[in-house]
Design brief:
single chain, alpha/beta, three-stranded parallel beta sheet, 3 helices, 24% helix, globular
């Protein structure tokens, strides 16, 4: 499990015992657990073939990326 949260930062992620994600590229699944405005949702969509969006971040922004499965 790799975590990316620009609001929390890499130090707190490491202090919690997790590895920070440097990039979304090459991962099988992205899970959205927070709806931060600073996240690049288009970049997440282009870097991951499957997104589990627990916050409805894509729908709330009117984003329906083509060829992407948003759960």
């Amino acid at each position: 499990v790799l975590i990316h949260d620009p609001v929390v930062g890499t130090k707190k992620i490491r202090d919690a015992g997790y590895e920070p994600a440097e990039s979304i590229e090459g991962h099988d699944l992205a899970v959205i657990l927070t709806d931060h405005e600073v996240l690049d949702y288009g970049g997440i969509a282009s870097g991951s073939p499957l997104i589990f969006d627990t916050r409805n971040a894509y729908r709330r922004r009117g984003m329906e990326p083509a060829g992407l499965h948003v759960l």
